[in-house]
Amino acid sequence: MEVIEFLIDEESTMLEAMQQLDKVAKKVLFVTRDGHFVAAITDGDIRRWILKKGNLDAKVREIANYNPKYLLEEEKTKAKEFMKKHSIEALPILDKESNILSVVLWNDEEVEPQRTLEVPVVIMAGGLGKRLYPYTKILPKPLIPIGEIPIVEHIINRFNRHGSDQFYLVVNHKKNMIKAYFNEIEKAYKVDYVDEDKPLGTGGGLSLLKGKINSTFILSNCDILIEEDYEKIYNYHNKENNLITMVCSLKNIKIPYGVIEISETGEIESMKEKPELSFFTNTGMYIVEPKIIEELEEDKPIGFPDIIEQYKAKGEKIGIYPISENSWMDMGQIDEMEEMRRRLERDE
Fold first, then answer.
1. Which of 77, 93, 111 is the last residue in one of the domains?
2. pLDDT 10s digits, 65-105
């Protein structure tokens, strides 16, 4: 990996920094001013900024840490020890003029932490998958293959790698095919099924778990993949004492038209040629407290976003955990499903 890939100018935008962090697949970038190293910016710095300020137009210089960790060239032999002490996975090596000569990276195996996310995971796997017709005429949506394995197995494997080994699938449409699939494969985790007799939506099906889950749990739709550190999300949820934490992804959409704003007198107030909108959107993954299950009315169809609205109206603490656009894959529609397949084939 080239040093230049880690460098970002302090006048760059936060959105550019998020895109670059995705590209280097590390958690830190090194900030330069006139080509010289002056600061560092991490995915955590950006996340804290978003949660505190909510401003997506910020410059890197407003967010970066101007007291960064680094070593001079003659100290390079101490790099691994220094990185271990300070829990960092990328360290710049500088000359006396603050030019970055190289970046020392941990070997992936050496920094792979022990996974301890022993949290039950509930996957909503009962939908009809109408947007993926005609695939779902034959297969239930959770079993649609992305590469060599079905989407729901991709989801489970990611949580399992982080330490989760108890999964609950809320099933309805073509449910016996789902059960048959998981009964046939070898797996290092346990799958329990919750049968919906009638469609209860992305929230109502949780009422069928009364008495089965009494700890914080993760809720996921069956058509999304989140490439993030799940433990970080879980720890953030606990630290903030949230009732529910919604994982939200940045979305950038370029409007392919000139956008006109009209004044009260019917004149043109402003014109923006093909503007780009940036906002956060619900990915369909949540960290949830068990109180939600216990308080749900049985057999009543309801979407999970509606449950959130109800608790929000009561003054309960609902938080968000922002992730970058590249960290979220959605296969809700056929073109998105093909894009997910291309990305997974490239990455795996």
1. 111
2. 999 999 998 888 888 888 888 888 788 998 888 888 888 88
